[in-house]
Amino acid sequence: MTESWCYPIQAANACPECSKTGKPVQQQTVTAMLAFSLRKVQAKQYLFCRTQTCPIVYFSVNHEQTFTVEQVRERVYQKEPEAQDVFICYCFHHTVGDLRAASSEDRTAIMDDLNTGINAEQCACDLRNPQGSCCLGNMHSMIKQLKQPDFTAP
Ligand SMILES: [Zn+2]
Fold first, then answer.
1. Ligand 1 mean position to 22 CA, how many Å?
2. pLDDT given for residue 8 in this prediction
3. Are 82 and 43 in contact (CB under 8 A)?
4. C-alpha to C-alpha distance for 141 and 154, rounded to whole angstroms
5. What are phi and psi of 53, to 5 degrees?
6. What spacing in Å lies between the alpha carbon of 14 and ligand 1's midpoint?
7. What pLDDT, on a 0 to 100 scale, did the predictor assign at position 62?
């Protein structure tokens, strides 16, 4: 039974900027992504903020440290889901634009290639993807979105 009423207003896993619940990431993801000396990394446990409009990418569980989009070496798909040249798949280098421009056959081929890569253990999502986990879910939802009928030329 959840008793959310008794939790403090600003939970430890809520982003200090947008208050949305962050997703725990491994420390190696944060250290791989940061664009400055790791001597500045103080906390051990970080969460990833997925809110598009929020500038914070990582924050520590105790809210002592936050890292923004400017401090991360990669552009973050969740923060710029409309940008054509941002990666959605960081391991096999597929951009939002690639996926948009692809025909439905090409998209199937991209997904096949992705699955082949995953099965061959060629991905390194924890080090290459800012979210610290596999892009597969993002790819599936974007492809699903692209399948929605568009009302261009009849
Ligand atoms: Zn946030």
1. 7
2. 53
3. no
4. 25
5. -85, -5
6. 8
7. 81
In the prediction, which pLDDT does 151 show? 46
Report the alpha-carbon distance of residue 4 to residue 11 in Å, rounded: 10
Sequence-ordered strand ranges (E) for the chain = 23-25, 46-48, 56-60, 66-68, 87-89, 94-95
By CB atoms closer than 10 A (0-12, 13-18, 19+), residue 37 is exposed
Residue 60: count other Cβ atoms within 10 Å of its Cβ: 20
Counting every residue written for the chain, the total comes to 154
pLDDT value, residue 5: 54
pLDDT number for residue 154:
45
How much distance in Å is there from the Cα of 57 to the middle of ligand 1? 7
Nearest to 74 by CA among 97, 98, 58: 58
Residue ranges in the chain whose pLDDT is less than 50: 1-3, 151, 153-154
- Rounded CA separation 134/148 (Å): 24
In the structure encoding, which two tokens stand for residue 102, read together? 């692809």
